[in-house]
Amino acid sequence: MDLGLAGKRAFVSGSTQGIGYAVAEALLREGAAVVVNGRDEERVAAAAERLRAVVPGAEVTGLAADLADAGQTQRLLERLGDVDVLVNNVGTFEVKELADLTDEDWQRHVDLNLMSGVRLSRHLLPRMLAAGWGRVLFVGTESAVDVPAGMLHYGATKAAALALANGLAKLTRGTGVTVNTVLGGPTYSDGVAGTVRHLAEQQGVPEEALKAAIIGANRTTLLERFLEPAEVAHLVVYLASPLASATNGTALRADGGVLTTTV
After folding, report:
1. Dihedral angle at the C-alpha atoms of 151, 156, 162, 166, nearest 10 degrees?
2. 21, 154, 188, 238: which one is catalytic?
3. 185-240, pLDDT tens digit by residue?
4. Rg (Cα) of the chain, in Å, rounded?
5. Burial (0-12, 13-18, 19+ Cβ within 10 Å), 195
6. pLDDT tens digits for range 27-82
7. Is 154 one of the catalytic residues?
8. Domain with CATH 3.40.50.720 in the chain
9. Are the C-beta atoms of 180 and 165 separated by less than 8 Å?
10. Which of 33, 76, 96, 153 is at a distance of 20 to 30 A from 4, taking alpha carbons?
């Protein structure tokens, strides 16, 4: 199926690995030009090079910036120019109990998980509205709806980003611009894999055994496995396309059936 993305230009935040990288690759395969992003110049360049290798002829460039930093974000936006598709993917997470969460922990999650999307959308959404077409996507999580007790700062800031996307969509009324969120389920991204690997080493158990135990403890998953980043990316890329013109202001799930609510 041709999603009609050829000739479109996209920016994907936090796209040197994981879901963001999978989104960038899927957009490139549909003919879009993509700007990838990460904090480190070398990692951004390496990701762009890998993408050119897997999608021959792809138009991919990179911009390095820590999007938790307002100044770095502004400088990135000055270099970025206009885009047709903004994918707010960048984020951070950690497992930490409430009593151990410092103000700095909370602020770091607010700055990256929420304010990166605020700053990028504030700059790029008005340009899309002026152009008459555009897509703003937030890569969210089931933890924004069913907030984990051991990751309160993560769930709360992702819930705020979910609310932000819903509100931004109200600004697109009667236009060709849409704003939506994809709620991903437990995904074996590079970040999650690294956390599981670290915990497995601490506990002295094989990584695959701990991985199976973690997903096995989830009582609501219908897939009974972790998702792959590409499985989330496929829905993001559909919503980025002209074919998704009737979908606006909503949160769609690629969660493997984890969420049991209708919201």
Report:
1. 170
2. 154
3. 989 888 788 888 888 888 888 988 888 888 888 888 998 899 999 999 999 999 99
4. 18
5. middle
6. 999 999 999 999 999 999 999 999 999 999 999 999 999 999 999 999 999 999 99
7. yes
8. 9-187+228-254
9. yes
10. 76
- Which CATH number fits the domain 9-187+228-254, given the four candidates 3.10.310.30, 3.40.630.40, 1.20.120.790, 3.40.50.720? 3.40.50.720
DSSP one-letter string for 26-48: HHHHTT-EEEEEES-HHHHHHHH
The pair of structure tokens assigned to 123 is 């700059």
Tokens of 165: 């996307």
Q: Where are the beta strands (DSSP E) in the chain?
A: 9-12, 33-38, 60-64, 85-88, 134-141, 177-184, 251-254
Contact 36, 87 (CB under 8 A): no
